[in-house]
Amino acid sequence: MQEDLFKRLVAHCKEYGFVYPSSEIYEGLGGVYDYGPMGVELKNNIKEYWWRAMVQMHENIVGIDSSIFMHPSIWKASGHVDAFNDPMIDNKDSKKRFRADVLIEGEIDKMTAKATKEVEKAAKRFGETFDEKMFRETNPRVLEYTQKAKAVEDRMNAAMKANDMADLKAIIEELEIADPDSGSRNWTDVRQFNLMFSTQLGNISGEEGKLYLRPETAQGIFVNFLNVQKTTRQKVPFGIAQIGKAFRNEIVARQFIFRMREFEQMEMQFFVRPGTEMEWYNYWKAKRMAWHNAITPADKLKFKDHDNLAHYANAAVDVQFEFPFGFKELEGIHSRTDFDLGSHSQLSGKKLTYFDPEINEHYVPYVVETSVGCDRMFLSVLTNAYAEEMVPDAQGEDANRLVLRIPPALAPVKCAVLPIVRNKEEMVGKAREVFDRLKPHFLCQYDEKDAVGRRYRRQDAIGTPYCVTIDFETLENDTVTIRERDSMKQDRVSISDVVRIVKERTDMANILG
Ligand code: ATP
């Protein structure tokens, strides 16, 4: 793009009240954003789509809303105090901070891009007869680039796994990686940096009063496992869902709302009988992909298995989406074994077991987790929706139109009500009457300012799927035109049918499989 288009999308988000940079009048705060009037509607609809798909559609999934603050031991047991780190490196000249692994990945990407360029050149040269697979396997230059990329990747992964910060630094030096902005190669050593934000309880001083802002919502589910199981009498397998804020002190927060320091997660932990976790892992992989596919074209999504499994996982995969800056993680699906319940049990001294009446056994359930970022989901919906196109205007001339093709069920405003002229009292009165009839059912906007063509464009720009226009004929026979955003087709319908039509077409049930 894609870069250019991405910049325009970010500008559009601000101009139309989807997302603002935080604290803008004070020059902003890095990696923190605010959602505006349109943004909060879209975000709430995304959350509702997830909640309904998980909780409403599954009898054996229930929700909770746990606190952001939790007992600090929770983060000891979960491994976050000791291991929730990223390797960081500072450039001594520019004083900028980077993630060492991200710098190295950038170099790997360059090598793969070189190989792809060779392939593309050859494809042009050979035309129809080109055999890409054979070319990749035999061309010396392509082989050199891909083998080098693989060797660097393997070495980086090994260094990360072994916590070998010196080797990460050595890779950066050997590849002669420079600060992307200043070009300087004057680096500090690589150090581990813990991503948790901490704060202090008012009534206890020192280390004992140290609290963390949760870096994931999952732990609030684990520590409530028994409460929920007992109060709902759910039987394994069952799940607990939660939507909530999480905080991570990301070393480099960029790419807009893709990587933020304060963000929202939609997580579900599914508790299963040990030994059945792979079955459920595959079940949730398919289910979650279907959820994405209901609103996102399949070629924009793919699975990517994890190369390095976290200490708690025996299988893990990301659902990646093709953001304007490439395929990147949108959701993680992890088989977390009994790690979390087991270590909370150990540290708290409380038994977190389940009695399975079917096999007459007590055990610590295994867990399959699905975890999707609400903000990344928001960005993916907007990336898919954003379109700049040429369409005929009222005079039949080509005109630019910017439209957000947001799935109707997720659109912030469902319907706009537009009187064709505003200086006729009877027409405005009728339009107000229609607006009042619609507004208890869904979010509507009333707009009478400017020519109707401009009003349509304003609604296109925020993704409103339907515009209802009140014209002279309305005054005669109580019919209105209803315009569909994507096709721009207009149908004449009776006022008494408008609620039903818009409701049916914007119903979330349409996308809940
Ligand atoms: P990444 O590798 O991109 O840092 P992660 O693997 O650490 O992500 P998880 O811990 O699996 O992410 O979190 C689950 C989901 O939460 C991610 O798939 C993503 O959608 C979202 N998420 C994680 N970190 C951030 C962030 N800093 N800003 C926005 N969303 C995030």
Model description:
- This protein is an alpha+beta fold and 513 residues long.
- The protein has helices at 2-15, 37-56, 73-77, 80-83, 100-126, 132-138, 140-161, 165-174, 218-222, 225-232, 277-293, 339-348, 374-385, 425-438, 452-462, 472-477, 495-506, and strands at 19-21, 33-35, 61-63, 85-90, 97-99, 191-194, 198-200, 210-212, 238-247, 262-272, 301-305, 315-323, 326-337, 354-356, 361-363, 366-373, 386-392, 398-404, 415-419, 444-446, 466-470, 479-484, 490-494.
- It has a 7-stranded mixed sheet with strand order 3-9-10-16-13-12-11, with helices on both faces.
- Helix 5 (100-126) runs antiparallel to helix 7 (140-161), helix 5 (100-126) packs across helix 8 and helix 7 (140-161) runs antiparallel to helix 8.
- Adenosine-5'-triphosphate binds next to strand 10, strand 13, strand 16 and helix 13.
* Total beta strand runs: 23
Q: Name the helicity range.
A: 25-40%
Give the structural class.
alpha+beta
End-to-end separation? 32 Å
